[in-house]
Amino acid sequence: VHNCDSRADMGVLPHALVLPYPAQGHVIPLMELSHCLVDHGFRITFVNTEFNHDRVVAALQIDGTMEQINLVSVPDGLDQEEDRNDLGRLTEGLMKTMPLCLEELIRKSSEAGDRITCMIVDESIAWALEIAKKMGLRPAAFWPASAQLLATLLSIPELTSKGVIDADGAATRQEMFQLGPGMPPMNTAHFVWNCIGDRRTQCTVFNCILDNNRAIEISEFVICNSFKEIEEPVFASAPRILPVGPLLTGLRPRRPAGHFWPEDTTCMSWLDEQPLSSVIYASFGSFTIFDRRQFQELALGLEATGRPFLWVVRPDLTTASGDAYPPGFEARVAGRGRMVAWSPQHRVLAHPSVGCFLSHCGWNSTMEGISNGVLFLCWPYFADQFLNQSFICDVWKVGLRLMPDESGIVKQERIKSKVEELLGDEEMRSKALLLKDTAHRNISRGGSSSQNLQAFVDAMKTSTK
Ligand code: UDP
Predict the structure, then answer these.
(1) Nearest-angstrom CA–CA distance, 451 and 226
(2) Which pLDDT does position 77 carry in this prediction?
(3) Pocket perturbation via mutation, ligand 1, pick of 248, 345, 363 by most ligand atoms within 8 A of CB
(4) What is the position in ligand 1's atom list of the atom closest to the CA of 363?
(5) Looking at ligand 1, which atom is closest to the CA of residue 257?
(6) pTM of the full structure
(7) Which residue owns the Cα nearest ligand 1 atom 15?
(8) pLDDT band at residue 463, thresholds of 50, 70 and 90?
(9) Residue 424 pLDDT class (50, 70, 90 cuts)
(10) Residue nearest ligand 1's atom 5 by CA
(11) What lines the ligand 1 site, CB under 6 Å?
(12) Average pLDDT over the chain, rounded to whole?
């Protein structure tokens, strides 16, 4: 992992304000990046929304140093009981409330003799870069998903002029669209702004993307959690997007990790007892929700595989109330199946017992999976997960799709047969191991991502020299 310690050539200690979009899949990679920056001599002020700050602090099991990462919070503009998964409302709340609070935070830091020198903003709220400009901080943007997705967002004017989408972002017709040669085609109905919430939410998110596209011009750097070889055509056509991934500091027990739920680490000793490459790890990130019927079918499918499995059952994974498991399920799978509310996923995927990853294909999960050479069974839920599935199955060829039947349900028999097909595919396994090597080469000394990170660090430090 990035371990180039450049504290020696530092002038004044550089101090970065790091601002993630308030969702789990954004907070974790920005926290990973923060740990990398600490290794490079930075101090970090990490800004969560108050709502998420409380969760991150509650989930902390403090067993490491935190002194270089200061966790602070600002309001998100929503009432306490409002639904933070309503991304339209959340986006509006943030745009209304955050700017003044951030300005005050930066000002107070200066008054206290603890000047913030640069601002690293999640591209999903790139409009906040205006604050960096106003307050005289070096501005940079971080993108926590595929470079192709960002390139797609940036090409919205072109999509509109070609008539692929209308002025509000709605697809004029459902078709497969290819952004450029060598890039996996995307279903226009799956453009990220078209598959988030209701039409009102989609319009809000679309307009926010347009604001971000304007604001990103201010940014001196646009870095992303990807690496050259997995998206080569995109990096060739959009050289401004600089890959610094995979960000994998979570393999080391570092705190804070930025999790919204406490990690149940007891599954690690359970994994130690399982045979090599035998375990199905099933995890669907922080947003996915299953209705009762699909949840039960998934449980029965895992049982039907006859293999050991580790299944992350978040407290809000299903809409079913009360005991959601099929009758007798827990007793039947006892010992062979393990359910946890939240896992230490980086460490789980790096464990030699894990054989495959039944995943919703969130970008972080995708990067974590390929960096550990696991095979994927893909079950996308929303947003960019369909595109990530195309990368996994069609471009890198390290996974299979798990498709629902005509009734829209993924049935237990299909889960069982796809697991068998996947685990029997030796060619796919060798591809996955090659990809793992490539990922690790990128972040070792002299690797492409490592060099990009160094260039970014050097530039972000200069104002303090
Ligand atoms: N994660 C985790 N434990 C779990 C499930 C998920 O630590 O039990 C982490 C996972 O490692 C990843 C993040 O949560 O870093 C989820 O991000 P992703 O982009 O995969 O999905 P999202 O939650 O955004 O849908």
Answers:
(1) 14
(2) 95
(3) 345
(4) 19
(5) 7
(6) 0.95
(7) 364
(8) low
(9) very high
(10) 285
(11) 24-25, 28, 259, 283, 285-287, 312, 342-343, 345-346, 362-365, 368
(12) 92
pLDDT-derived band at 66, boundaries 50, 70, 90: low
Average pLDDT of span 20-44:
96
Report the nearest-CA residue for atom 6 of ligand 1: 285
Mean pLDDT score, 451-460: 97
The residue among 185 and 64 whose pLDDT is bigger is: 185
Name residue 368's amino acid: E
By CB neighbour count within 10 A (0-12 exposed, 13-18 middle, 19+ buried), where does 437 fall? exposed
Average pLDDT over residues 24-35: 96
CA of 18 to the centre of ligand 1 (A): 19
Atom index in ligand 1 nearest the CA of residue 365 equals 20
pLDDT at 61 over 70: no
Among 195, 226, 254, 286, residue to substitute to test ligand 1 (most atoms within 8 Å of Cβ): 286
